[in-house]
Amino acid sequence: MNVISHHDLVVLLIGMASMLILSRIASELARSIKFPVVMGEIIIGIILGPTILGNFAPEVSAYMFPVSGNATIALNGITMVAVIMMLFVAGMEVQLPVVLKQGKAAVLTSTLSMIIPFALGFVTAWYYPQWFGITNEFKLLFALFFGTALSISALPVIARILIDMGLFKTKIGMIIIASAMFNDLLGWLIFSFILSSMDTTNSGNEFTYTIVYIIGFGLFMLTIGRKILDKIMPWMQQKLSWPGGVLSISLGICFLSAAFTESIGIHAILGAFIAGIAIGDSVHLKEKAREIIYQFVTNIFAPLFFVSIGLKVNFIENFNGSLVLLVLVVAYVGKVSGASLGAHFGGFNRKESLAIGFGMNARGAMEIILGTLALQAGLINETVFVALVIMALVTSLTSGPMMRLFLDQSYFNNTKQIENN
Amino acid sequence: MEPDYNKLKKRSAYPFETVAVAIAFSPRLEAILMETKRMVSMFGSQLVIIHVGKKDEHHEEVLDKLMNKIGFAKIKFRVIWMEGEPIDTILKLCKLNVVDLLVLGALEKENLYKYYVGSIARTISRRAKCSVLLLTNPSINPKKMRKIVVNGIDNPKTINTLKATHYLAKNEKIADFTVVQEVNTPLLSMTIAESGTEPEVSKIKKEMQEEDFSKLNTLINSIDRQGINIDLKIVKGKPGYAISNFARQHHYDLIVFNSPDTHLGIFDRIFTHDIEYVLADMPCNLLIVHSRV
User: Fold this and answer.
1) Does one domain contain both A161 and A255?
2) Do B194 and A37 touch (CB under 8 A)?
3) Nearest to A283 among B187, B208, B241 (CB)
4) What range does the domain containing B105 cover?
5) pTM (2 decimals)?
């Protein structure tokens, strides 16, 4: 049996410790100035990786984060597990009844905030693949990916902005949340299809099978699978030790589901995401158990993943100003116009619609996960990846201030007055 | 004949001037009629008895005998026999007769197939343009409802539902009823797990809860209580499921909900809508108040 050597283990542990401790410090700093915590984690990755440490102290960098060897393989495995767990948690956030309950306005906002950025991204990538350094072989898949990347939203960032602005439980807040949930669900389904298609030859049959598998698995898990999980949840919570039992069985189901989708040719992330929706929707899942799963994933595995991004990519070498600008413009125009139009057709006035548009524009961690998986699959190059990461951070940072710009004090006063009446 | 919808528009959810009962010639017929008689006598309403099916001598005789036995003599009532598809026919007759409250017998729990495909009583309760009372255990010796719980969801219809429940409580001569506010914030937990300190998390949760509580309290205080006490309770859990569970645990006789905002379809059963948790496994009788606003 192959075992990790004493030296490799020490390297792995030092690497993980530095990633966790430094990212925590950076995240706290980011939080104190109301920036997304993921920003602090990415910056630590950039500092520890080839961009800064690798440049100024290559020996230290090579010792802590070697580019090959068992420690690297182990760290890559851990970050892959982290992605699966983050998708599981992202699935737990998706509450489909919330989407259905919001009615026409949510349907219009979520549909248009998906279709318009997707179409804009697809058309840009399809007609100008050379701007992204894409060969004709992957033109279709890249165009599909770029459209999806622009349509996805970052629910945690959006929710945080809404809480800070006191809009979390208002009509605007609920529409944004419901639409972002729907965007995430559809976005990850499409992205799973793209990743699965990367592994197959382009024969029509295999595309068809992939689509049938994804739809079939999704439908099964969201109907029968969800009911079965809901039935076993009370037993788990009563008979097994608390909260350890729920935690280990829930994550076990997540890994099983991820393993199943991976084994049938769909990426593991879809299995984890759908398992998250099914478990998160259970009426029997206690709030405390949910919180523990969130804390465990977002404070241990998420930082490891986000810091590891900076370890793999040189952000200075791969920075292309014009590409970043292009991605930003397409991202803003697509998402803000799509979501605003949807909200306007759904009955909101011009200012409220624009606020909804900018609220949904935050891409945050989800975009970075999507970009990383695309980079690993060889669908995009490092320059496009850096542009996507910057777009994710800039959109997350500007969402709150832009919403405030359109929802002036009079809006908050009116809302309070209506509520009081 | 097409219903005159103008008579229904903006009509108050209460008083229940016209009560209808939809009957089938099932073993529970006598019990359902006894329960309806109690309601009609209590509210001073006129009664419409609806049977969807062929009018024949045998059924007419059975119904007449039963009515005489129960003693409907002092009650103003009409019996309507009409053939057709049961759900659409009952809904249409309710509109035509400007029914305020439709009484139906319902099983506590339907089998999975019936639940998803839709039983008659449950489908009517989802689509009716009047208030609907689903009786899970009708009795030939009906008792008054002593414990009533209302869903205090943040919705413009809730004030009408509270007033209708108050009207019901006053007629039942009960001293109090409970309003439940369900607290469910899964997204909030995730958001603050990522970027919040313990005191900050508690503060946000507390503020949100207090805001909701104060809103509902204001709503309750706007009702002229006339000696009836309204007790406000906070229950944690998924909307619909939490109140259903609460009603079951505390042995309530009646649970009161707003009518759904949208037409509920099969998706609302798969991705369960609040009221569907109650309809899936009814903890007690269910009153769905249609505000017509």
Assistant:
1) yes
2) yes
3) B241
4) 1-143
5) 0.82
Domain termination site, one of B103, B121, B143: B143
Q: Tens digit of pLDDT for each residue in B128-161?
A: 889 999 999 899 999 989 999 999 988 889 999 9
Instruction: Output the average pLDDT for chain B.
Output: 86
Q: Which residue has the tokens 């489908």?
A: B123
> Residue A200: pLDDT above 60?
no
DSSP assignment of B130-171 equals: SEEEEESS--SS------EEEE--SSTTHHHHHHHHHHHHHH
Closest partner CB to A100 (pick from B191, B193, B267): B267
Q: Which of A27, A100, A287 sits opposite B271 (nearest CB)?
A: A100
**Could you tell me how many CB contacts below 8 A there are between chain A and chain B?**
83
- State what percent of residues in chain A have pLDDT above 90: 41
pLDDT tens, residue by residue, B2-57: 556 666 777 888 899 999 999 988 888 999 999 999 999 999 999 999 999 888 88
Choose among A31, A36, A97: nearest Cβ to B272: A97
As a whole number, mean pLDDT of residues B236-248 equals 91
* Domain match, A57 and A108 both: no
| Residue A212: CB atoms within 10 Å | 10
Please indicate if any CB of chain B lies within 8 Å of the CB of A283. Answer: yes
Please, are residues B36 and B21 in contact by the beta-carbon 8 Å criterion? yes
Say yes or no for a CB contact (<8 Å) between B268 and A100: yes
To the nearest whole angstrom, how far is the Cα of A141 from the nearest Cα of chain B? 32
Element (DSSP H or E) covering residue B277? helix B274-280
Range of the domain at A7: 1-67
For residue A421, what pLDDT band results from cuts at 50, 70 and 90? very low
| Token pair for A45 | 């990755």
Same domain, A102 and A60: no
DSSP-derived secondary structure letter, A284: T
Query: Nearest-CA neighbor of A355 among A165, A181, A183, A95?
Result: A165
Read off the CATH number of the domain in which B177 is found: 3.40.50.620
**Contact residues on chain B for A95, CB-CB shorter than 8 A:** 186-187
Place of tokens 């139906």: B104
Token couple for A143: 């165009």
Confidence (pLDDT) at A19: 94
Please check whether residue A89 touches B, CB under 8 A. yes
Query: Are B245 and B110 part of one and the same domain?
Result: no
Range A305-324 average pLDDT: 92
Q: Which of A121-125, A198-202, B38-42 has the lowest mean pLDDT?
A: A198-202
Q: Are residues B53 and B81 in the same domain?
A: yes
CATH code, A345? 1.20.1530.20
Q: Are A149 and A195 in contact (CB under 8 A)?
A: no
Structure confidence at residue A360 (pLDDT) = 93
Cβ–Cβ below 8 Å for A97 and B261: no
ipTM above 0.90, yes or no: no
The chain B residues in contact with chain A (CB within 8 A) are: 154, 185-195, 204, 208, 211-212, 215, 218, 236-238, 241, 261-262, 267-268, 270-274, 277
Q: Are residues A36 and A8 in the same domain?
A: yes
B186 vs A37, A95, A302: nearest CB: A95
Residues A355 and A175: beta-carbon distance below 8 Å:
no
